[in-house]
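S1.2 Input.
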Amino acid sequence: MARRERVVRMSVEQPLWRALTAYRLLTMVYAVLIYAFGRDKFERPWVAAGFFAVLVVWTVVTLPKVANAVSCTKRFLGVDLTIALVGILLTPVADVQARYMDGPTLPTIWTAGSVLAFAVKGGWRWAAFASSLVAVANLVGRGTPSRDTLHNVLLVWVASIAIGYIVEVARASERTLARALEIEAATRERERLARDIHDSVLQVLAMVQRRGTALGGEAAELGRMAGEQEVALRTLVSSGLVPTTRTSEDSSLGAVVRTVDDAEYAEYAEGRAGGADDPTDEDRRWDLRTLLAPLAGSAVTLAEPGAPVLLRPAAARELAAAVSAALDNVRKHAGDGARSWILVEDSPDEVIVTVRDDGPGIPEGRLAQAEGEGRLGVALSIRGRLRELGGTAELISVPGQGTEVELKVPRGKAER
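S1.3 Output.
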């Protein structure tokens, strides 16, 4: 069953909408209290009372409109800003002295919430437009604006533009991050499929090509076609970035990779189909020794600790498959007469599996050449698997002295 990567998107602007909702409620209460404690100084208190009735109803009813960017429409923003501007212009009507004295307007700092809604919704350009209208309304309402009025107007204008610019940068960063996560998930899935293809389809095609060539006749033609398909599939797996120049006769990989018997994985597959790999299943563990035991034989010696080596099912299976791929490389490149040794080491922090052979070793530069030709056994079947587990795969080879592959899988104390 293929594993699916999930890309979780996090909205960087949603907290801004929640903060804006709280700001509008608090500033509405503040404006009403300012009027309640100072209503005696109004020449026309009924004008102020009518405006605050509209302001309270509008603020409460439109709370869902400032819950997110989708519900905050242009029509809502237009009406909201209009109410703020009307409140500013009505201030000298309700309080004649306000034109000559540097007192607060009717909506007071509630007006900034309307401007901030423009900034969060549309960025700094929308914020500049809304704050400019507010500035003009303040200058008109004051008649002869004081120094404090100019200071407050400039402060709202600069602050709203700055917040709008920050919102635009945050949105661009969010899109870039989401795209990077999608690319990473797609790359990981592609590597997983490439490993599965390498361990199954490519190996079978290589075996058919080799056996067909040996049998001759019609079987040789079938082997030739299988070899061509193997070359084409390898090119596809490696994304076609490196042209394939080798011939079918050079593409034989020897025997099919010797994997753990299907019976060993029957329980694992059944458990996985039933959701055993679900992240909520914290207690499920597999003994790595039972997965490596079928790999031992007359030419392969397995040395293991006396106690179970417990890993999560997915980690145990991937590590066993990497060991199997390493042994397959020994059989292909060192011959059937080569001997191999598997050493399993278990510690509280990590599990180390070492695969060593007495073959001729790997010539310098051969791994890079093989990867360039599309032979991804070491790159994907071994290193790719360990990389997904958060581990490492180190390969040490000296010509004439064999090869050693050290596989390390870190795990915390909970893994035990």
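S1.4 Remarks. Strands lie at 286-287, 300-303, 310-311, 340-346, 350-357, 392-397, 403-410.
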